[in-house]
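Quick one:
INPUT:
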């Protein structure tokens, strides 16, 4: 809702936002216009939408949601002050719902604060010179020598050649811990030319699309675009679908947690059916809405596949979700393993073996292009003017980048020993938190679709 609107308009808005764009027709017509094509098998996959819905909504989502509320996963360190590397833009969103509330240091569990630095020998040396560095450089003495060696190697390990993201420097004085539960992803009012510029840069410059092929944003463009998309290799087609799926997921969250009422006495957040229809209704989007939702399911399959693949890394006895609370940490690891084993049990996983499977030289070149394009997208997140949007954009791109890192490190993961250090394949705490929270966003989006289906089904 626009800043400065009167209380009366806001109160009226609470009612108006619940009204559908399409208000006439038989019962279920509104639902069919958004979901009639979002069914059955997905392109480039053997899986179907209905199998994903049942698996996610009734098995995985409740367990994952509970895990993400734990201390290890709720605190994420991020630098929201990095300048945009691509264009001069100082226009930061002034809307209060764009603001991010960083955590006071004493609210972050000691184990997490020290965990970001405890594996760094350099940080331990600085501890002797500065009280702050001493606090951040603490090492948990209860760890075995083998585990201490493994985690020291963890931080020293330079995986820049395999990184799909421009990760924040967590040692920077501008990096702060953020409690994700206190800064939920939802509608902030950030829209218009600034938001359009971000997504336009992502799609037009980073999705392998020729300049003469226009995206299907206006009538008549769709045929040419999808003819091009169908003709490109599976890797480039998958790249576009991943970005489109991420975009769809973000739009679902903005629609599901919309500011419906903003008065002096309270704020009320909830589903905005109008907003959802504007983004996903088949007629209003000229056929694009259902495609966007299918791409969301494609993204879900890719991220679920990565979770199933990375299980051996987390199963090692030496791995800990370290926060400093030994009993709680052990319980959270058990819950984590339960989720990963559940992910592995999914019957219709995406087969990533078709990726980069041709000529080795060409495959290596394409993989590098794939990596650099995605890394560029992660940099664009520093250009987002809304800080809360920037926070979740950075987290979700790092999470998806970690997914790609896992899928393209299968040989290294297979070589992880059952006990002892894992030197070949590593994940930092930042990557782990981003991985599971990013998948949590996608899982929540799939769950929210069921809510919107129910609402639309009962509308005329």
């Amino acid at each position: 809702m626009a800043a400065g609107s009167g209380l009366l308009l806001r109160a009226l808005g609470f009612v108006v936002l619940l009204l559908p764009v399409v208000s006439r027709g038989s019962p279920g017509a509104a639902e069919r216009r958004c979901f009639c094509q979002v069914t059955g098998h997905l392109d480039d996959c053997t899986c179907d939408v209905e199998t994903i819905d049942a698996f996610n909504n009734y098995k995985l989502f409740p367990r994952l949601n509970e895990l993400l509320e734990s201390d290890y996963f709720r605190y994420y360190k991020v630098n929201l002050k990095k300048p945009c590397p691509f264009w001069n833009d100082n226009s930061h969103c002034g809307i209060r719902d764009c603001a991010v509330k960083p955590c006071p240091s004493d609210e972050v569990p000691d184990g997490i604060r020290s965990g970001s630095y405890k594996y760094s020998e350099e940080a331990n040396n600085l501890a002797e010179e500065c009280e702050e560095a001493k606090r951040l450089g603490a090492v948990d003495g209860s760890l075995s020598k083998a585990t201490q060696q493994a985690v020291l190697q963890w931080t020293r390990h330079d995986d820049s050649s395999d990184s799909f993201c421009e990760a924040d420097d967590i040692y920077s004085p501008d990096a702060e811990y953020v409690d994700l539960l206190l800064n939920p992803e939802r509608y902030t009012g950030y829209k218009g030319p600034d938001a359009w510029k971000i997504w336009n840069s992502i799609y037009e410059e980073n999705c392998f699309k020729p300049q003469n092929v226009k995206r299907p944003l206006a009538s008549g463009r769709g045929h040419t675009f999808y003819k091009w998309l169908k003709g490109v290799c599976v890797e480039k087609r998958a790249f576009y679908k991943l970005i489109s799926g991420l975009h769809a997921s973000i739009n679902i969250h903005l629609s599901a947690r919309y500011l419906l009422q903003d008065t002096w006495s309270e704020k009320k957040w909830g589903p905005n059916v109008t907003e959802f229809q504007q983004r996903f209704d088949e007629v209003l989007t000229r056929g694009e809405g259902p495609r966007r939702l299918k791409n969301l399911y494609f993204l879900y399959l890719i991220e679920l596949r990565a979770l199933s693949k990375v299980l051996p890394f987390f199963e090692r006895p030496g791995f800990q979700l370290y926060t400093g609370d030994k009993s709680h940490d052990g319980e959270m690891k058990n819950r984590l393993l339960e989720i990963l084993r559940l992910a592995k049990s999914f019957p219709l996983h995406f087969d990533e073996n078709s990726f980069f499977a041709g000529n080795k030289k060409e495959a290596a070149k394409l993989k590098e292009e794939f990596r650099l394009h995605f890394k560029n997208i992660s940099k664009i997140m520093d250009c987002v003017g809304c800080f809360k949007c920037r926070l979740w954009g950075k987290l979700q791109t790092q999470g998806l980048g970690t997914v790609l890192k896992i899928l393209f490190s299968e040989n290294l993961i297979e070589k992880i020993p059952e006990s002892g250090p894992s030197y070949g394949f590593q994940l930092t705490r930042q990557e782990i938190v981003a991985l599971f929270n990013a998948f949590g966003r996608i899982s929540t989006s799939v769950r929210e679709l069921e809510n919107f289906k129910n609402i639309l089904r009962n509308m005329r």
